[in-house]
Design brief:
Elements: E1 9-13, H1 23-38, E2 43-48, E3 59-61, H2 67-75, E4 80-85, E5 92-96, H3 105-116, H4 126-147, E6 155-160, H5 165-174, E7 179-184, H6 188-195, H7 209-215, H8 219-231, E8 234-237, H9 240-249, E9 256-257, H10 270-292, E10 301-306, H11 316-325, E11 336-341, E12 346-349, H12 351-357, E13 374-376, H13 383-389, E14 400-404, H14 420-424, E15 429-431, H15 441-448, E16 453-456, H16 460-469, E17 480-483, H17 490-505, H18 509-524, H19 528-531, H20 533-552
Helix pairs in contact: 2-4, 4-5, 5-8, 7-8, 11-17, 15-18
Length: about 550
């Protein structure tokens, strides 16, 4: 990288800064430490301010950071809180209130149309909220440039997903000296096509993004995403499979692919790993016993799926079908406990289960609805619940049990009361048979915790694994099995996953131990230390374009 294009400040905006919603939170929070090593305290994250709802263990205000700017911003009517995001690296974070801009929404949208042809006429739902936050983020950048930085500083403003588009376009017009980078982690149209049950891949080259946006009532989200991709200085995405999607549906090929990395500094090792795994497994077995009345020994194999609640896109349907295929499995020495750890519409922890867990007793009788750990608001219309309801967990002659853990695992759900990673470490095998998966953090997290996993050829992570294996066959015994998936081979995928589970469960201890070690070694290739250079290159691409503008202005 040309030293003249090294950033003085990196400002990055996302709805998920200090806001645990999904995978982008993991992307940003795990990358922050590398960014701090690259430009210490010249990295500033912008996120939405939800006031008292922002947990104190995630964000800590600090009035000593840019104190003069904090005063000036308040005088300008910009409502911000400056402090530290309490993640590895402790980067500076600016949380901004955005509700005040709703009153000016129509004017903002009209300018967006006249300046960049963005169609906000069909907006609904979260479009307005995301756009007002994005606008507020741009005003933060504008104020920061006025009071902290100077015109000669190299400043990059990086936005994530369509929710950041309005702010990026505002900065592109009114702060032309600021370099802009836009990362789409999944196109809104691609996700919608897949989520609506349409064959995304068979007719891929025939899809027109604008036409599909009209058909799926996604005009505004697609419009802001497309125009942002075309007008920023550097457009990136997270995998080769999504790059192809961007080129077809947004009519813009990314300038560079920036894969999602990971940090393993919080993965325990040695006796710490063994202790946490033992404690987590013991707790899950206790919950399963209290629900079903079945007994679970230490030799029980725990398998799971987790992630966003997208029944088809995330392959939840495939996972459940594969587990149901195992009902005739018999192995009294090694039973199987399958977990569906996917947030649903819950009304809280089950009182009957809470009561059972409060005492040190092993149960022989099941609870009603023995497939779910939490109460559901609308069980009759919950797709996962209805699928699991037909699986008889009370049949003690069956060595397979499947449970629904329908909450975000934050350690405060009332039943599991463990973080996602503390729950993950208890697993023997994780399964993510995604149909639509731009990257796939869950399988990467799995192998980072030394747990072999199954993914598919339609996941960005799966494509990366295939590249790393360089044509050699993938398998669970080598850490990751990548199952070939397309629009029409669901039965084949279910069969392959069923067979893979049965083969893996039959492994001896040494083979299983080697599989866990292979998983760990593969995860080291996906650390941020190996992937962060792609971001440096993205900044370089953006700065060169911004520098040309500066020369010609």
């Amino acid at each position: 990288m040309d030293k003249s294009f090294l950033p003085n400040y990196i400002i990055e905006s996302s709805w998920e800064v200090c806001n645990k919603v999904g995978g982008i939170y993991t992307v940003l929070s795990s990358r922050a430490r590398m960014m701090q090593l690259f430009k210490h305290d010249k990295v500033i994250f912008i996120g939405p301010d939800f006031g008292d709802k922002v947990p104190s263990d995630i964000f800590e205000p600090d009035y000593r950071i840019f104190p003069n700017w904090q005063v000036a911003a308040a005088e300008e009517g910009l409502h911000i809180r400056v402090g530290r995001w309490l993640i590895p690296g402790n980067p500076i974070a600016v949380l901004v209130e955005y509700e005040q801009y709703y009153s000016n929404k129509n004017y903002i949208y009209s300018k967006l149309w006249s300046d960049f042809s963005v169609d906000s006429l069909h907006s609904y739902g979260d479009y307005d909220e995301a756009s007002m936050f994005s606008y507020a983020s741009a005003k933060v950048v504008e104020s920061f440039c006025s009071h902290v930085a100077n015109m000669n500083d190299n400043i990059v403003f990086h936005g994530n997903e369509w929710m950041s588009g309005l702010g990026l376009l505002y900065v592109r017009k009114f702060l032309p000296h600021v370099a802009t980078v836009f990362t789409t982690h999944a196109t809104s149209i691609g996700r919608s096509i897949a989520g609506n049950g349409k064959p995304l891949y068979d007719y891929f080259t025939g899809y027109n993004g604008d036409q599909m946006a009209f058909e799926l009532n996604m005009q505004s989200k697609h419009s802001i995403e497309k125009q942002t991709a075309h007008n920023v200085d550097c457009f990136t995405t997270v995998s080769s499979i999504t790059a192809r999607e961007c080129e077809q549906l947004l009519e813009k090929a990314p300038d560079i692919v920036t894969p999602n990395g990971f940090n393993d500094d919080f993965v325990p090792y040695g006796t710490g790993y063994t202790r946490r795994r033992y404690e987590s497994r013991r707790k899950l077995f206790k919950i399963a016993n209290a629900l079903t009345g079945k007994r679970f020994s230490e030799t029980t194999t725990i398998i799971s799926i987790s992630g966003r609640n997208e029944f088809r896109n995330k392959g939840i349907d495939i996972f459940i079908r594969a587990v149901k295929n195992l009902k005739n499995y018999e192995n009294k020495k090694r039973s199987i406990l399958a977990l569906v750890c996917v947030p649903c519409w819950t009304s809280g922890a089950r009182e009957d289960l809470t009561e059972r867990l409060s005492v040190k007793t092993k149960y022989d009788t099941p609870l009603p609805n023995s497939f779910t750990t939490h109460e559901l608001h609308d069980m009759e219309h919950d797709t996962i619940a209805q699928q699991l309801k037909s699986f008889d967990n009370t049949d003690k002659s069956c060595d397979v049990t499947i449970l629904m853990v329908p909450v975000y695992l934050d350690g405060k759900d009332g039943i599991v009361n463990m973080s996602y990673y503390d729950t993950l470490i208890a697993n023997d095998l994780c399964i993510y048979p995604s149909y639509y998966e731009p990257w796939g953090y869950t399988p990467l997290e799995s192998i980072a915790f030394h747990i072999p996993c199954i993914t598919t050829s339609l996941a960005g992570f799966g494509q990366w694994v295939l590249q790393e294996f360089k044509g050699k066959e993938t398998s669970l015994n080598r850490g990751v099995l990548v199952v070939e998936r397309n629009d029409h081979n669901e039965d084949e995928v279910v069969g392959k996953i069923t067979d893979a589970i049965l083969n893996y469960v039959s492994n001896d201890g040494d083979t299983t131990k080697r599989a866990h070690e292979h998983a760990r070694r593969l995860s080291l290739k996906a650390l941020w230390t190996n992937f962060f250079d792609n971001y440096i290159e993205a900044y370089d691409i953006a700065f060169k374009k911004a520098f040309e503008r500066r020369k010609n202005s």
